Amino acid sequence: MTIAADLLAWYRESRRELPWRRTRDPYAIWVSEIMLQQTRVAVVVPYWERWMQRFPTAAALAAAPLDEVLSAWSGLGYYRRARDLHRGAREVVARYGGRLPDTAAALRELPGIGRYTAGAIASIAFGRREPLVDGNVARVLARLFAIDEDIKAPATQRRLWHIAGELVPADAPGDFNQALMELGATVCVPGAPRCGDCPVAAACAARAAGRAAELPVVPARRADADKPLLAQAAAWVVRRGRLLLARRHPEGLFGGLWELPRAPDAAGLVRMFAGPGARLELAGGPPILRHRQVLSHRRLVIDVHVGRLVGRPAAAAAGPYDRIAWHGLDSLDSLGLAAASRAILTKLRENDGWTQSSERSRSSRRATRRSSRA
Ligand code: SF4
């Protein structure tokens, strides 16, 4: 038996039953692949099912407003993936009449579809003999072939793609690719692989050399403390049970997401809202919350200040935002919110700062009214 035959036999016998494995619909597989990037299977299943009910075809997704798409994605993180899906669906409708193209090369021209996703859709949905390499596959191949080089290095990646291309069989490319990923997710796991349960153990060079747990070689991560610091100020403005939020321009960073209005500092926040008919007044004193977050490339510190908006928010859209609007405090869970703002809202809810900050927002308004009467 070959590696491919052993793997396929094992996969068909013991694979996990996942809803997207019951379909060959390229759109449904596309959605599942994008959702599964950096997110666990158990989290993705209910999202995928809801998504397919709400947007059952590329045409349905293309016709939906971005706000609705981001709201359906809310909780999965990495909203860029949802925006790319949305843009990709519009392109599929405009260029291909709503049907995904059936080659990896054409798929890669769509927004958010890289080499991996194109290989997955082409092989699983269209039965094309296309390889794929994701984190799981890279780990399995590095062990099977005892590859000693940094797994993320371009030369190693080229080698892994080449090996994957040699292994993938013409008669069952989709199942084979899924089998490799399944092996990496359930048996050839990071740290301590379960070689005793492995269907390709006899062919594994790392196991033969007693080096399975040492591989793959992964580059050391940059220490969090070495990442540059970005300090920001955010406004917490509540009026009659509704919170003031700003939506980022669709084309920019975190495009289309809502967040607490943010600027480099408190003065910048006030300037952002200054204009005919609108003015932001911040309560004095320390921020109600200091939020810290480490991102992949920087550390973020956001000081949240209670404030009051005078005038209509629509007149105040500025800076990185295309819209500023009130949102009910009880409807925020279903809104496409940037991760930092969602974390801030969760913290304020947990320590009851929500009520206190809303109270401070009210007293700030009363103080402003008193001073303007004086
Ligand atoms: Fe991974 Fe062990 Fe199987 Fe090799 S034998 S592929 S290290 S689980």
Tell me the Rg in angstroms: 25 Å
- SSE order in H/E notation? HHHHHHHHHHHHEEEEEHEEEEHH
Biggest pleated-sheet summary: 5 strands, mixed
Briefly, what CATH class of the largest domain? Mainly Alpha
Label this structure with key terms.
374 residues; alpha+beta; Endonuclease III, domain 1; Nucleoside Triphosphate Pyrophosphohydrolase; 2 domains; 9 strands; disordered C terminus; binds iron/sulfur cluster
Structural description of this entry:
With 374 residues, the protein is an alpha+beta fold. It has two domains: 3-208, Hypothetical protein, domain 2 (Endonuclease III, domain 1), CATH 1.10.340.30; 227-373, Nucleoside Triphosphate Pyrophosphohydrolase (Alpha-Beta Complex). 45% of the residues lie in helices and 14% in strands. It is built from 15 helices and nine strands. Strands 1, 5, 6, 7 and 8 form a five-stranded mixed β-sheet that branches. Strands 2, 3, 4 and 9 form a four-stranded antiparallel β-sheet that branches. A hairpin with a 4-residue loop joins β7 and β8 (299-311). The structure holds iron/sulfur cluster.
